[in-house]
Amino acid sequence: MLKSTALAVVLGLGVAWSSGAVAQETLKIGVILPYSGPFADAANQLQAGIDLYIAEHGDEVAGRKIELIKRDTGGPAPDVARRLAQELVVRDNVDILAGFALTPEALGAAEIATEAQKLMVVMNAATSVVTEQSPYIVRTSVTIPQLNYAFGTWAYEQGIREAYTLVADYGPGIDAETSFAKGFTEAGGTIVGADRTPVANPDFSAYVQRVADADPEAVYIFVPGGAQPAAIGKALVDRGLAPPDIKVLGQGELTHPEALESMGETARGIITTFHYTLERDDPLNKAYVDGYTAANNGREPDLFSIGGYDGMHLIYEAVKATNGDTSGDALVEAAKGMAWDSPRGPMSIDPETRDVIQTVYIREIQEVDGELQNVIVHEIPNVKDPLHGAAQ
Amino acid sequence: MISQIVIVLFDGFAFGMLLFLLSVGLSVTLGMMNFINLAHGAFGMFGGYVAVTVMRQLGLPFLAALPLAFIAMALLSILIERTLFRRLYKAGELNQVLFTIGVVFVAAAAATFTFGTVQQVIILPDWLRGSAEIGGVRFGIYRAFIILVALIITALLVFGLERTRLGAQIRAAVDNQRMAQGLGLDVERVFAITFALGCGLAGLGGALAVEIVGLSPSFGFQMLVYVLIVVSVGGLGSISGSFAGAALLGIGDVAGKYFWPEIGSFLIYLLLVAILLVRPLGLFGKR
Q1: Which of A203, A213, A293 has the most B C-beta neighbours within 10 Å, making it the best mutation to test the interface with B?
Q2: In this structure, what CATH number is given to the domain that contains residue A71?
Q3: Do A206 and B212 count as a contact with CB atoms less than 8 A apart?
Q4: Which of the four pLDDT bands, split at 50, 70 and 90, describes residue A24?
Q5: Do A106 and A219 fall within a single domain?
Q6: Does domain B1-278 have CATH number 1.10.3470?
Q7: Are the C-beta atoms of A137 and A130 separated by less than 8 Å?
Q8: CA-closest candidate to residue A33, choices A51, A19, A57, A53
Q9: Which residues of A touch B (CB under 8 A)?
């Protein structure tokens, strides 16, 4: 007994000493994502974006070796995210917190970032309020109002006067509904009806029938990714609610690759607003898509992937700028105003809000070489989130 | 207005029939064998994966993939029943619940490992896509197909359990196991066949559901609630009960969402509570 205890102590000391010695050089990044549960796919795509960036740019920056420590929240659980962030900071001594696919995860961890004064890179969570929760948060993904406010304005400019909104009944969906409606009505349009569907809704026939009864010029849709986009797309077409008779508008998840495949011909003419377009003809994007599909068995990158990829870019560039100083204040200062060309297009970090400024693309599903694709029909450069600093 | 009511009834009935196909197998296993198999949805999930895989990898048509999903799940369930579930028949409800919910977690992890986390897509043949217009009302063709399959399965099950020798053996083995054994029935074999039938039906339901509700490793959890609602409303071990319960819930769900979208998603639970208050054993429950 005594012997084994002594051995354990010696071993423990050895481990502690060796990890202490390494900590001089390694740069530890704690990645908090919902690796299991209903959002596992989002987490995997985001992680693949992180991994691709490291594979392309080497795992060393400013003389420090990158070490990722992954933690699984299992879903939108703020308390779990908070506990994991605390453990990462206190026990694992991470220099940077990153990941955060879902808003509740980011909200849970924000306070820890403030207390521990660590840079926190939000790589997806897309509600406006996220960056306001801590002065150490920087976002490299997108905000829902950023995409949809401009989209509402654009819809009116296209001659649409009446729209019906149908959104999933949770934070992001309500954000999308209000920001689209705001952009649309401020320009002069009218919202003729607004319905909200349960977040895990298996069947859209009833809601789609309500839209059909109202017979609007356009319908705006926001549903979580996964299976719902294809389900709602098909339900619309079954009711005869399809372009050109009615304009179908939505956020980019509606026409993600699997949804497109599932909808087939029914997707033709759907118009979406998004910050990342897989099919965008651009050398940087092409290299990124090729590298990503090669590393992921042919799976194509999506919005989560690009958030992770650009999040790593921000970390690398910030650590280079500070020469390896990883204090939260130094890294946030380095991140403010940073601008670069991403596969998504030009983007920068707003020095005021630490949020992302980027081009918003309006895309329409058209046939290209016999395949249905998201074709960019309009670009709105340098869009900021419209809600920051606005009196709410 | 009349055409709207017709379409809401049709869509609701179709959604109900999808729930019926997903849950009728559980009604069989739970009602006949008193075994609480919460892993039922996991068999549905793997049935979906079987259908998607044979269509994508082997290029088989959709109509061939459906029976394959049934057969694959029936065979898998025989293996699982022999190795795992058989020990639990006399273990008490709590142990059954804990064990089978554990199986769902294992199944989700296995699906993630094998197929990845991506949403699976099923490409229907052209003749099942789109809608047909009858009297100014547009009916989804795939929904009509689901109704047809559900009616065929119901007829087969009712006939099989009530009019065939095997059906009589199953009923005898369930009602009085010792007596049935005394009469020379191989009760273990009968139970294995019953279980395979229930899980095969789950596989078939899963394969049919992919087009409407999608398919990812969390399918087993997503569908569990609906499946349990249908079984409890219908009553255990009653095929016609499951049918009536599923139809009622499907129509109630769609009609509720159509007429009162604000509370629509909650209506299915209100119905459940109301029915169970009036009939604690379900619509047609005997035990």
Answers
A1: A203
A2: 3.40.50.2300
A3: no
A4: low
A5: no
A6: yes
A7: yes
A8: A51
A9: 36-38, 40-41, 43-44, 169, 195-198, 200-203, 205-207, 209-210, 213, 225-228, 230-231, 237-240, 258-259, 261-262, 264, 266, 297, 299
For chain A, the first-to-last Cα distance in angstroms comes to: 65
Domain boundaries defined on chain B: 1-278
Question: Does residue A17 register a pLDDT over 50?
Answer: no
Residue A25 inside a domain? The answer is: yes
> What's the gap between Cα B94 and its chain centre?
22
Cβ contact, residue pair B15, A205, below 8 Å: yes
* Confidence bin at B31 (pLDDT 50/70/90): confident
Residue B246 to chain A, least CA–CA distance (Å): 14
DSSP H/E element including A194: strand A190-197
Q: Which residues of A touch B249 (CB under 8 A)?
A: none
Asked whether residue A22 carries a pLDDT value surpassing 70, the answer given is no
Shared domain check, A372 and A235: yes
How do residues A271-302 score in pLDDT, each as one tens digit? 999 999 999 999 999 999 999 999 999 999 99
Placement of tokens 């066949």 in the chain: B193
Helices A303-321, A328-335: crossing angle, 10 deg rounding: 110
Q: Which two tokens stand for residue A273?
A: 């607003």
